[in-house]
Each structure stands twice: as C-alpha cells, then as structure tokens.
Amino acid sequence: MRTDESSSAELEVGYSPCPNDTFIFHALVTGRVASGGFTWRPRIEDVETLNQWAFTQRLPVTKISFHAYGRIRREYALLRSGAALGRGCGPLVVAREPRVIDDLTGRRIAIPGHWTSAALLLRLFCPALPRERLVVLPFDRILEATARGEVDAGLIIHESRFCYAQRGLVALVDLGEWWEGETGQPIPLGGIIARRDLGAAKLRAIEEGLRASVRFARGAPAESAEYVRRHAQELSSDVIAAHIGLYVNDFTEDLGTEGLAAVEGLFRTAEERGILEAYRGPLTA
C-alpha cells in the first residue's frame, strides 16, 4: 500500500542512472537550487522499473516512458520540465547484418521493456510483430545479446546508440527518424510526472524546482559532472557528454506548445491503433 506523501515535506523522486536524468536532477536533489519546500529522496532505477512502479503509484514524482504514462494519465500530471524529447534522438533497431530488416515479424528482438516508448514506436512501425517474439532485457544488455546472437535484433535506447558499431552491429531502422518523417513532430521518449493528488500548489512548486534544476545544469554543467559520472557506470566522458547533448535540450527545460503537441500526437496515434485507452483530460497540472 502506498503512503500519502502529500502531507509530508519529504518526497521520493524516481529517475534513472542515465546521464541525462542525473544531470537534470543533480541540482534539485543536492540543494543547489530552491527545492520547492521539499526534501528530496532519490530512487535511482532502470526506467522500466520506474514504469512498473508508476502503475501502482509507488512514487509521488517519477521519470517515466511516455508509453507507460499513457496508461496513467488520470492519476499523474505531466510536468513541463524534465522531458527527453527532441529530433534525431530516437531508438534504433540494430542487428549483426542488414538483411534482418527484410522480415522483422519473424525475428526475435530484444527490447528494453514492454512499456518503454521505444517498444511503442516499434509496435507502430511494425504492427504485425508478434509480442511473443519480443525479448525483454535490461537496456544495457541488449547490445551484448544481439552481438552474441542470443536474439536476431535489438531495440536500443540511451547511450547504446553511441556504442553499437563498436560491437560490429548495423542500424536497421532509426525509429525517431521514421516518426519525424511520418508526423513532422519531435519524438517524445520520457517525461517527469507527479501524482495529481499532491494538489495544484505542490505540483507547481515541484515543476518550478525541476525547471530551476534543469537551468542550473545547462548553465553550469561542470557542477554535476562527478554525480553524473558516479551513476554512469563505465561510460566514457565522451559518451556521457554526447548522451547529455542529445537528450537535454530546450524541450527539457520547458515542453512548450510544440513539445506538448508532440506528446499528445503520440498518444492519439496509440489510441487510434488500440494500444492505449482513450483519455481526453488534461496532461499537465
């Protein structure tokens, strides 16, 4: 049973160990910017774990894949700051040889979780792909599994897009590029959400604190370098910098009209395909 943090000054916040998340949250959780009146307690987990936790409302504030968020829009409000959304940053389908693309429906494909936005994009790109052919692996295991032949192809996210060629793999499809070509919109990958039962005033304070943290990070990137590196496991400095440069942008500071329209467009398409239930309420607080 979840506890009601809405009456407490302490709030748990979930985000992943990926450089873009630790980069934008560093100033908030370490007190470098105004905290919105809260004491923040980080829970750093893989994004698919955070997706699953959100379905039970385990955390009051959390990073989430937009695919997963589509399922809980009534319970959680989307914050306008903190999102991973943009152009040229979509997930890739990779394999050992290019001919795999000839028939994806008959292939075993490793994915980083059924509720990731990458998995949603794959379903939209290849609707006939059987669910039983999808193999869920931690995102940082997918390159190895694909290179070793444990699966026919891998759906990669995060920093893996900078490393796949080193494993002798080739990119079959850039799903972000495909989505942009189909819709003309940037690709929504993940966002930060907060439980609606916290109330409007607290939601505004959380959003303002997060926006201040993003601005601080972008203005003084060296301040968060040690924190980011500590959680980035064995990533090189060059990969960390490339990762942050790709996934942290103006949309991260504020979704704005264009970013919010892109999120709504993704949900509308998923609803039309029967992947998500229809929802006509507001996304943001």
Structure characterization notes:
With 285 residues, this protein is an alpha/beta fold. It folds into 2 domains: 10-86 and 186-272, D-Maltodextrin-Binding Protein, domain 2; 92-183, D-Maltodextrin-Binding Protein, domain 2, CATH 3.40.190. The chain contains 11 helices and 11 strands. The strands form 2 sheets. Strands 1, 2, 3, 4, 5 and 11 form a 6-stranded mixed beta sheet that branches. The chain has a 5-stranded mixed beta sheet with strand order 8-7-9-6-10. Helix 1 crosses helix 7 (200-219) and helix 1 crosses helix 8 (225-231). The protein starts with 9 loop residues before the first strand and ends in a 13-residue tail after the last helix.
What is the H/E order? EHEHEHEEEEHEHEEHEHHHHH
CATH A-level architecture of the largest domain: 3-Layer(aba) Sandwich
Q: Using only CA atoms, what is the Rg?
A: 18 Å
- The CATH class of the largest domain is identified as Alpha Beta
Instruction: Tell me the number of structural domains.
Output: 2
Q: Can you summarize the main beta sheet?
A: 6 strands, mixed
Task: Let me know the number of strands.
Answer: 11
What is the rounded distance between the termini? 25 Å
Q: Mind telling me the CATH superfamily name of the largest domain?
A: Periplasmic binding protein-like II
Low-confidence stretches: 1-8
| Proportion of strand residues | 15-25%
Based on CA inertia axes, which overall geometry fits?
Answer: globular
CATH topology of the largest domain: D-Maltodextrin-Binding Protein, domain 2
Helix content: 25-40%
